[in-house]
Each structure stands twice: as structure tokens, then as C-alpha cells.
Design brief:
single chain; alpha+beta; L-amino peptidase D-ALA esterase/amidase
Length: 351
């Protein structure tokens, strides 16, 4: 599903941070990265799946340095243990709803079996990474609507200029009491005369409206008061944060970088409630680790840690803007007579 010139948060005159943005201001500004969605929007279901393709090559044969960090673990994500242990990613990353993790995992296995057979790559074990948010507030989550067909459709639709908002895995999510969704942003960093990119994609489904903060201004209570909306008294729901970069970095350095996504959430008013799962996954396309590497040692480029603050800032800024894009791009969604409104309906509070 391609973008249709959606109005994003920057189009409202809101500037997040100081680092320059990539051409699309999306995770796909990192060369080789693509994103695809499959959305299920019916009377019974508001759900879907979003797939991040990290590179054009067979990723099992050309593994990428990767890291994961669980800030708060109220989640059902699959595949993080091997990423944390080995520091590599060997499969596309998929996002969906809580009860579809197993079905999406199975579909990714089938996809990679087919890809490896096609490429003549022997594969007897694979580690799919599947993230989730609970969209039961806007969808009949128990009737699991996402499986092989939807995952393969998302992969087939993958592109650079993908849609944001209430699409794919973000169709049924709620963020700070308003409609959440899929959002993305990117930042550029210059080192040694070369420009690198760091991009973030979020599936936003967390936070209280009363805590919602925009550029240091607490605007959530104003929206509550105007619309007389019922706010929940707990911060629950979860957010998945996917970080891609072409910066040379080790898995340890990536783990340090992706932790800074938390700064972006804090700026928006999140305090990471008990019932919310905040999970970060990151990878770099700057190196490949061959599955059949014959050498006893492998040289991998890493970042000079005296310069890593630039990557920290990029992760924080891109996460903050990605969440805002997920909210501003999402149209209102109604389920069982109840509507979750879009941030764009409250434009007067954005300036």
C-alpha cells in the first residue's frame, strides 16, 4: 500500500528536533529497506499486518547485525531471544496484533523456506521476528484474521513510500486515547564526509490522552475537556519501535542506540505504564554476515563511540516524529458504535 500524499506532522508546521531528515522522512530512507501492509477493515475487524524487509538480498544468507531491547515487557513478541544472543537478524520483521503472532510467525517461516529454496540456500532453522500490539479495542481479536495470505500480500506490496496511519498492523491501534497506527521518520548523520541515515517505524498503541504532550505543551487535557472524552486511568497497550540504519555499528552499539527511542516517547508524555509493552528492535545494513562464511574470523565495521551521540539524537527525534505521524495520518475508526478520533481533528491545538 503506497502513500497517497498524506498530510504528516511536519505539514502542520511542527518541527521535531534539529537533525536533517531523509528524502521521504521514513525508515525506507535507509537504502534497501522496504515496508508493506495488508489491512483488514470490516465491520468485525480493524487489524492487519505490516512487514519490514531489511534488504533486497536473501537475509538468511546475508544476516544483518541487529539488537533488541525490552523497555517494558508486557508483550508477546517472538524471536527476540536469538537476536539478543547472536546479534543478527535473518528474517523480515512483521508486526500484527497479539493473538496473530503465531500465525504470522508461521507465514514468515513459509516465506523464507520458499525464498531459500529459490536461491539454493540450505535452511533448516529460521528465526522470524514478530512484534505485536493488542487491537481488541477496535477489532474482534479472538477471530484471528491475519495469516499466510495477508502476510504474503504485505510482502508483495512492500515499497519505499508506504502509507502511514490506520493501515496494516496499525489499523486497530489506539495511541494516547486517540487513533494510533503505523508511523515513520528518519534522520541523517554526517561522519567523515559521508551521510548516513537512521529511520524509525512505530506501531503505536500506548499512553493516556491526559498525558499527551506536543513540543513541550500538554495538549491532551485540552482535547479531553473540549470533547468530553472518557480517558482511561492507566497507561497500557504497547508500542513496537523498529530502527533501521546504514551506520556501521556492532550489535552492542545498536542496542545502545535503540534504547534512545525511549526519549522520544518520554517527550510525548509516556511514563511506560505497567500494562504497556515498549519494545525496540534495530538493525544495520552496513555489514553482511554470510551463513556459509568460510573464514575463522570476520571483520565488521563499527562506529567510533565518541560519535555515537549523533545516533542517540537521531533515534530520539525520529521516534517522536514517527509516533506523531502515526496519529496525524490515521483517520478516525469506529467499532461497535465507539469512535477513536484522529489527532488531525484537533488541528487548532497543534500550532
Amino acid at each position: 500500500m503506497n502513500s497517497t500524499k498524506q498530510k504528516r506532522i511536519a505539514d502542520y508546521g511542527i518541527a521535531i528536533g534539529s537533525l536533517p531528515k531523509g528524502p521521504l522522512n521514513k525508515i525506507t530512507d535507509v537504502p534497501g529497506v522496504k515496508v508493506g501492509h495488508c489491512t483488514v477493515a470490516t465491520e468485525e475487524h480493524n487489524t492487519g499486518v505490516t512487514v519490514i524487509l531489511p534488504c533486497a538480498e536473501n537475509i538468511f544468507a546475508n544476516k544483518l547485525p541487529a539488537a533488541a531491547f525490552v523497555w517494558n515487557g508486557f508483550g508477546k513478541t517472538a524471536g527476540l531471544a536469538q537476536v539478543e544472543e547472536l546479534g543478527t537478524l535473518e528474517c523480515p520483521i512483521a508486526l500484527t496484533n497479539t493473538l496473530n503472532v503465531g500465525l504470522v510467525h508461521d507465514a514468515l517461516v513459509e516465506y523464507m523456506v520458499g525464498r531459500c529454496e529459490k536461491d539454493g540456500v540450505p535452511m533448516h532453522s529460521i528465526n522470524p521476528v514478530v512484534g505485536e500490539c493488542n487491537d481488541s479495542g477496535l477489532s474482534n481479536i479472538s477471530r484471528r484474521a491475519i495469516g499466510r495470505k495477508e502476510v504474503f500480500a504485505a510482502i508483495d506490496s512492500a515499497c519505499a513510500d508506504f502509507a502511514e496511519g490506520a493501515v496494516g498492523a496499525g489499523r486497530g491501534t489506539i495511541c494516547h486515547g486517540l487513533k494510533g497506527g503505523i508511523g515513520s521518520a528518519s534522520r541523517q548523520i554526517e561522519l567523515d564526509g559521508k551521510t548516513y541515515t537512521l529511520g524509525v517505524l512505530v506501531q503505536s498503541n500506548y499512553g493516556k490522552l491526559a498525558d499527551f504532550t506536543l513540543c513541550g505543551r500538554l495538549i491532551g487535557p485540552k482535547i479531553l475537556e473540549e470533547q468530553q472524552l472518557a480517558d482511561v486511568n492507566v497507561d497500557k497497550g504497547s508500542i513496537m519501535m523498529i530502527v533501521a540504519t546504514d551506520l556501521p555499528a556492532s550489535d552492542r552499539q545498536l542496542r545502545r542506540i535503540i534504547k534512545r527511542c525511549s526519549v522520544g516517547l518520554a517527550r510525548l508524555g509516556s511514563y511506560v505504564g505497567h500494562g504497556s509493552g515498549e519494545i525496540m528492535i534495530g538493525f544495520t545494513t552496513a555489514a553482511r554476515i554470510r551463513y556459509d562464511e568460510p573464514c575463522g574470523t570476520v571483520n565488521l565495521p563499527i562506529l567510533n563511540e565518541n560519535k555515537i551521540d549523533l545516533a542517540f539524537r537521531a533515534a530520539a527525534e525520529a521516534t517522536e516524529e514517527a509516533v506523531l505521524n502515526s496519529m496525524i495520518c490515521a483517520e478516525p475508526v469506529t467499532y461497535q458504535g465507539k469512535t477513536r478520533h484522529s489527532l488531525r481533528e484537533y488541528e487548532k491545538y497543534l500550532g
